[in-house]
Model the fold of this input.
Amino acid sequence: MTSWRTKVLPPLLAIVFSLLICSIALLISGSDPLQAYWTMLRQLGQGTTAVDTVNLATVYYLSGLAVAIGFQMNLFNIGVEGQYRFAAVWAAIIGGALHLPPVLHVVVIIIVAVAAGVLYAAIPAVLKVTRGVSEVISTIMLNSIVGGIVAFLINPDQFGVLTGNNLRTQVIDPSGRIPGIPIGDASLFGFVFIAAAIGLAYWFMLNRTRFGFELRASGESTTAAAAGGVNSKRMTLIAMLLSGGVAGMVALPELLGRDYTYAITSTQGYGFTGIAVALLGRNHPGGIALGALLWAFLDKSAVSLEQVHVPKEIATIMQGAIVLSVVVAYEVVRRADLAAAQRRVGRALSGGRPASVAEGGAI
Amino acid sequence: MRRTRAAMLTATALAGVLALAGCAKDSGGGTSSNNASGNTGSCVTSQAPAAPAAATSSSSAGAKVDASSLRIGLAYDIGGRGDASFNDAAAAGVDKAKQDMGVKDVSESTASPTEDEAAKEQRLTQLATGGYNPIVAVGFAYAEAVGAVAPKYPNTKFAIVDDDSVTAPNVTPLVFAEEQGSFLAGVAAVYKSKSCHIGFIGGVNTPLIQKFEAGYLAGAKAASSKVQIEDQYLTPAGDNTGFQDPTKGNAKAAAEIAAGADVVYHAAGASGKGVFQAAQAGNALAIGVDSDQYNQQTVAQYKDVIMTSMLKRVDVAVYDYIQAVATNNLTTVPKRFDLKVDGVGYATSGGKIDDIVPVLQGYKQAIISGQITVPTTPAK
Done:
């Protein structure tokens, strides 16, 4: 069992380290680091920023979960980006075209989104299982293709509507929206709770079901799992489809809670952010939530920093530094822990004498 | 162990992506050549409308306006100040206002490429609560955000460039007749083409850029019934890299020139640099966009191939708007910045189109008088 050190220390170290790097960057660019950090903290009390941060984190959380499911099976699903955009545009088109009673309308839209995400993830999954095509390559290509698909579908000749100079899908009826929770001026996405439920389901599946065990086992070692009677191809297929299904929901918080339409100006890149968030959260549903909140907070800081004339790129530097240092910090602490454990074992074996190197002791 | 390594690789790759996203591609080089010739090509088949007798568009220098008490908030789209495109044009308008009208306090803020809708609202809200008034949002991507924020601050004046879909009473749309200026660019291209074969490069295939395309095609066809036109976009709608990819602009322009085009018009923002480069390498001419690119520092090494530029005077619109706010008379802001108010037009720097100015003036007059109506969507 890992000690508390391996869990809590690395992220703290990483944040301290990235603060350090950013302070240097800020000093070089002629700004006051303390003032910058104070601005970042203070923004949470201003206007709707705090709620906006949680809203954005909901999107990142779903994206992070989608990536994490793939990671569990040792699949690198870079395609979350393509899967969520493919799902979002179909959910918006069908949701905008249908006129259904409340609740049912929302359920249909969610089902459409999940199905579209699964469908788009099925392409790399089938290619991987039947032909051995690397999912990294195929999903990157599919990400690129999805841009064309979205542009085609939002064209006025197909399903799009021209509004000013923008192109968008039909606006979804009020019956197809998820009401937000008003907090002051702001409105918290109702989808926050659905996302939390999905996080719980993810944890339960992984830790409390046979399927989750088999998934993790095949992720650790396909051959060992195969020896235990687990069909790794089947696990790969299911993991990829599950990942795609969750990816399909990434855009839904915004689509059903704020925008009600998908436009050519709709935000892209959530899928890539999900990779970073999953890494930060070490694939743990709680960790991913913290990672998503941190990432969203830094994104919001970028806007606030510009108001005090600090370059907004500082936020990007901090995000990059945190991802890198989290990975490094985990590795450093893991090795330190491993060495400590080896010394302990060594001491126990040698009856109190310091262990020799051959026995796994310190050099 | 393997998974840790995979995680590390991922992190490294991710950091690389972050770094790459921050860099704009740059391509330099190219040989210098000059093929500008002043002779009218044999491509023209139509009689140009008669030019007006004398230039009448002398803007009267009015009384000096003092706007020193205004605190101006400027929310840029992706790219911001220094994008050599419409953000820069808006910045130029504000800079001129600083100079002429004594504006002192300007707060500028730029959109990130992957930010969400709430970030745009946050930006506008922070400017509004910071006491900035008026606030100028640059680009139609702000339409939703302006529509959401403006009603909450009824005493703050907002303007939005390139969008007229927001209906709040305190929002002034600053929109342009891009198709009219592009029509003249199409006419100029036909008059300067030796092979009677011209090209268009659009940055991103959006309705806004299609207005440039539509006007250009219409202008070319109005001047010549036999002109051949190459017509391409760099990226589909939604993929904004088409405005920041000189390499792609170069490749597509080179392909059009290889197909026979000898005048290429671009509406592709910073990708236009690649178009100029291709024109220089392929002994062709190019038409710039938005600002007078002949005089633009970032493309100075290609100025000998830039025969003219289609001017979209975002700077004038922003300047006029600030002036209107300062004098508290927003009715002076034109509903649409078109040829009539010189909101769009063409540049003559470099002298390569001096010989056809009467022709262009004739067409311009015909458009202003309504004799010619320019389409806003390309005829397919």
Observations:
- Residues 313-349 of chain A form the longest helix (37 residues).
- The longest strand of chain A covers residues 161-163.
